[in-house]
Write a structure and sequence with these properties.
This protein is α+β, with helices and mostly antiparallel strands and 179 residues long. 21% of the residues lie in helices and 36% in strands. The strands form 4 sheets. Strands 11-12-7-13 form a 4-stranded antiparallel beta sheet, covered by helices on one side. Strands 1-6-5 form a 3-stranded antiparallel beta sheet, with helices on one face. It has a 3-stranded antiparallel beta sheet with strand order 2-3-4, covered by helices on one side.
Length: 179
């Protein structure tokens, strides 16, 4: 049985949740998110909590229940407090700066890379090497962070590149002389 799917989702104050025609809309202090809900899942919305219910207990339906509960919980957290992802740039001469709605990266290539941020994602650069991304949509934030990381993934010998702040790069030993 899905343990995640059975947990109720608490609705913070100043957050409204509405369900119409299998489309869930969550409005909060930071913005509004909408998502279509799978037809096998039923949402029971009260004043202070959301409960995700399913009609039968087969394996696929329980998986959809847990997924739906996680997605709805991320929507509620996103519109009330938001999400943040931090990236670190390591390497001599590697740096970033925000210009309007884009980030310009100097990552050791012959030309700088201009990365346009999607709508709903904000960026802030500290000390030219720490990029802080924030937004209300957790999926879009994670995809944006992964796209930025893929511009120059960290390499295992010196650790140069873009990595997540909580990521640990296990370094390999280099070549040794034969004498």
């Amino acid at each position: 049985m899905s343990r995640v799917g059975k947990k109720p989702i608490q609705i913070p104050e100043k957050t409204t949740v509405t369900l119409a025609n299998a489309v869930l809309t969550v409005k909060g202090a930071k913005g509004t998110l909408t998502r279509s809900i799978h037809p096998t899942v039923k949402l029971d919305i009260s004043d202070s909590a959301i409960q995700v219910n399913i009609p039968d207990q087969d394996r696929k339906t329980r998986a959809i229940q847990g997924l739906t509960r996680s997605l709805v919980a991320n929507m509620v957290i996103g519109v009330s407090s938001g999400f943040e992802r931090i990236l670190e740039i390591n390497g001599i001469g590697y740096r970033a700066e925000v210009k309007g709605k884009s980030i310009v990266f100097n990552l050791g290539y012959s030309n700088p890379i201009n990365f346009d941020l999607p709508d709903g994602i904000d960026a802030q650069v500290d000390k030219n090497t720490i990029v802080k991304l924030s937004g209300i949509n957790k999926e879009m934030l994670g995809q944006t962070a992964a796209s930025i990381r893929s511009l120059r993934p960290p390499e295992p010998y010196k650790g140069k590149g873009i990595k997540y702040a909580e990521e640990y790069i296990q370094k390999k030993a280099g070549k040794t002389g034969t004498k």
